[in-house]
Design a protein that fits this description.
- The protein is 76% helix and 0% strand.
- The protein is mainly α.
- The longest helix has 28 residues, at 39-66.
- The protein is elongated, with a radius of gyration of 15 Å.
Length: 133
């Protein structure tokens, strides 16, 4: 089930919101690759997700610092943790003997959806007041 952008996910900053929209697109493409069992395309999309996440997190931290967001150090730690979790899940999936089992592919897709949406809802939206000043 693809993720759809909802206005409730907006932090009120076009740069961050556009990044989140693009990350949603990548995750949707990863899910499509999982459905099709297309390993070459999956590897490419996962690399794109990794690279763009790093770019996005760096950009988000710079914006948070620029607007005086008091929780920037916690945000930075969260980003490091998210990248570690993403790396571990990617590695676990790629090395699993039953990588294409319905349970494992669903679990990986669910992880990616929650990985992004939970971060936006639980952490990024806390920046909204600082971003709107």
């Amino acid at each position: 089930m693809a993720i759809a952008w909802r206005e409730q996910l907006s932090v009120g900053n076009n740069i961050i919101d556009d990044d989140h929209k693009y990350l949603i697109e990548i995750i949707n493409r990863v899910e499509e690759c999982l459905t099709k069992k297309d390993m070459p395309a999956l590897k490419g999309e996962l690399q794109r997700l990794h690279d763009y996440s790093l770019l996005h997190f760096d950009r988000e931290e710079k914006i948070a610092t620029a607007v005086g967001y008091q929780q920037t150090p916690g945000l930075q730690q969260s980003h490091r943790s998210l990248m570690e979790k993403l790396g571990k899940m990617q590695s676990d999936f790629m090395t699993a003997e039953q990588a294409w089992s319905p349970e494992l592919t669903k679990g990986f897709a669910d992880f990616l959806r929650n990985w992004l949406i939970d971060h936006v809802i639980k952490e990024d939206l806390l920046m909204k007041p600082s971003l709107q000043k």
